[in-house]
Design goal:
The protein is α+β, with helices and mostly antiparallel strands. The protein has four helices and 14 strands. It is 19% helix and 38% strand. The strands form four sheets. Strands 13-12-11-10-14 form a five-stranded antiparallel beta sheet, with no helix packed on it.
Length: 188
């Protein structure tokens, strides 16, 4: 069985990967609090790359006060829509603030379009994703702030006033009904 020298050399070459020209969604893992930096540099380095950072409104209790803030839904992660050509992949991978693209064996894995669209469909006109809390009677809760901060109890029901709920707090071995702001609770 005689093979020519050219045939043997061709068989030894690695298989050539074909790149998909259709943009797909991928997930980039970012360095902490670098979302704005990555967005800025992506705009300068990679044309045709779309990004999406879902944001949610959070309420935190500090020093007896409630503070509202808008934060990334997935801290240190960003959805990026791009084709997987080597030039675009390198531009995204080497963007300042990007740690890596999530994937397998060095190749990024695409995220289904439906996932990103499902998140986007829950966003309001300002782009903030509204996440409803799944409160149900009997759910274990903790009060985050205020004079009842760090007390634990059980969710009872929503009240007629917007944003207020009735919980049963464990005080001296008894369940005492109390009305609090829903934003002041966390599930256990």
């Amino acid at each position: 069985m005689g093979h020519s020298r050219d045939e043997l050399l061709f068989d030894d070459l690695p298989r050539i990967r074909r790149y998909d020209p259709v943009p797909l969604w991928y997930v980039a893992h970012l360095k902490p609090r670098q979302e704005a930096r990555v967005v800025f540099h992506l705009g300068m380095r990679a044309e045709g790359v779309e990004h999406y950072i879902p944001r949610i409104e959070t309420v935190r209790g500090r020093w007896g006060k409630r503070l509202a803030a808008v934060e990334p839904m997935f801290p240190n992660y960003m959805f990026i829509r791009m084709n997987d050509s080597p030039e675009i992949l390198d531009a995204v991978r080497w963007t300042p603030g990007v740690r890596r693209l999530l994937g397998d064996g060095g190749l990024p894995l695409p995220v289904p379009d439906e996932l990103v669209e499902a998140i986007r469909s829950r966003a309001d006109r300002l782009g903030v994703v509204r996440v409803g809390r799944n409160w149900y009677p009997g759910r274990e809760i903790r009060v985050l702030c205020g004079p009842l901060g760090d007390m634990e109890g059980v969710f009872e029901r929503h009240t007629s006033r917007a944003g207020r709920v009735r919980v049963l707090l464990r005080i001296l071995g008894f369940h005492t009904p109390v009305e609090v702001d829903e934003a002041d609770l966390e599930a256990l």
